[in-house]
Amino acid sequence: MAYGDKTAVDGLTLSVAEGSITAVLGPNGAGKTTTLETCEGYRKPQQGTVRVLGLDPIADRKQLLPRIGVMLQGQGAWSGVRAMEMLKHISRLHAHPLDVDELAERLGLGECGRTPYRRLSGGQQQRLGLAMALVGRPELVFVDEPTAGMDPQGRRTTWELLRELRADGVTVVLTTHYLEEAEELADQVHIIDRGRMIASGSPLELTRGGATATVRLVVTKPFPPGARESLRKALGEDTEVTLLDERSMRVTGRADPTTLAKVSRWCEENDVLPESLTLGRRSLEDVFLDLTGEKLEHV
Amino acid sequence: MSEVATGTFTPKPGGAPITQQVVAQALMEAKLMLRNGEQLLLAVVIPVMVLIGGVTAGNAIDLDLGSDRGLVDILTPGVLALAIMSTSFTSLAIATGFERRYGVIKRLGASPLPRTGLLAGKVLALGCVQLVQLFIIGGVGQVLGWTPAAGFGTVVAFFLAIAGGTLAFAALGLFVAGVLRAEATLAAANLIYLLLLAGGAVVLPLTAYGAYGDVARWLPSGALGEAVRTAFLDGAPAWRDVGVLLAWALLGSTLTARTFKWE
Hints:
The structure holds two protein chains of two kinds.
Chain A: E1 4-6, E2 11-13, E3 21-25, H1 32-39, H2 61-64, E4 68-71, H3 83-92, H4 100-106, H5 122-134, E5 140-144, H6 152-167, E6 171-176, H7 179-185, E7 188-193, E8 196-201, H8 203-207, E9 212-219, H9 227-235, E10 240-245, E11 248-254, H10 257-269, E12 274-280, H11 284-292
Parallel strand pairs in A: 3-6, 3-7, 4-5, 5-6
Antiparallel strand pairs in A: 1-2, 7-8, 9-11, 9-12, 10-11
Helix pairs in contact in A: 9-10
Chain B: H1 18-35, H2 37-60, H3 71-101, H4 104-109, H5 115-143, H6 152-179, H7 182-199, H8 213-216, H9 220-234, H10 239-259
Helix pairs in contact in B: 1-5, 2-3, 2-5, 3-5, 3-6, 3-7, 3-9, 6-7, 6-9, 6-10, 9-10
Organism (chain B): Nocardioides luteus
Subcellular location (chain B): Membrane
Membrane topology (chain B): Multi-pass membrane protein
């Protein structure tokens, strides 16, 4: 299954493998929802072609809709409808729906089944939205920001469920602006920014930095002027130092104790107190920062 | 990464038979309409109050509507017409306006239910609510002494009036809901309802309005009122009024088709 897509925002081409989890990652306003809504047939691409399960989302909408599940970003239910009533209603539109009680139980909606939609918490509304996307037993689900506004517990539950979907052969396409979510879940990550695809690959491919390591230094007070240059001089030529913000720097260089020791010594000499000094492989956040020069929101 | 294949979610997609989908949609919408306090006020409480108040007060002051028929025989069909109007126009417009606002229509747009099925479900839901209204208002009318014309002709004529009125007002209601925001729809739909209640010749017959009656009979409210009254007073269809209603339905659906956005 593949779709190539040119959105109104800008040209982007991406394809999705069956039975995998694909994450479309990007900051707010990057064009994630637009991309998804084009695949769902809500928007007509001005240029280019979109194929979902081999079908045109607009021309073949009738054949496509029963086969996909869609989780919208927020809302999508009558304000006075009870949670279970809504889920049951959507299930009646499908030929072979899941058992709604079991599904609700799985998503932790058992307790709020009789609560009107408008009085559900944000996380409960999100989970109901996910349940509505899944109840028709689709081959492919599009989930837009599935864990936005969820507590960590709800986020874990959702992640587990999405993994179970993949294990059962469902293809999942999700958007997220949480790096951790993409890193945890996705087989393929597409990073988009301002409507353009800036990187694609598995999380491992994207974060592979060879033998280099990353040291992240966060200090208690803003760095003195010229700190980046002086640290770079102290570490030697084959090391790269990036100022992330006024209180944190990233050092990319050889992964050995000497690098760490040199950073500590530099701190001592410059009277800078580290709040944290961490050594690790590049994260998706580093990749994103390298590509765009901007930080993504933290989880 | 833990990954357990349970088979729970093994794909087995497909839409339910279209009749099942339409019935589900109709029952859902009817249930929500009858559960909503404001909608219920509009659909049942106000018409019943108008009927009881009108008959009681009219008899007390010896109101003469220029007809040899009893007041209750004239007012009950008028109130039924009012109820049909409130459901098909005001309730539908408000509900649809908020469905657009809350993304319900967008959500259903991603389900197997096609647009035509959604529309059919809405019309069927209106039919369900109107049936409830007919029983309550008709029952109250009976208690007050209403004696409608008996026979098959009455049933046919009443059905034609309801069908024409529902189509006309539903098309106009969807037009309002499609061009205005939800709050503006709420205000406009209620305002138009009140204006037509007072000056639309729906509850009171055209004869009560004097010369203005000649204008009012071309309004959808006046035509619906006359059509329902003729059905129950004479037991025969009021063809001209049904024609007026169908013309309004045509106008409304043309406007709606040009302007309505589902989301």
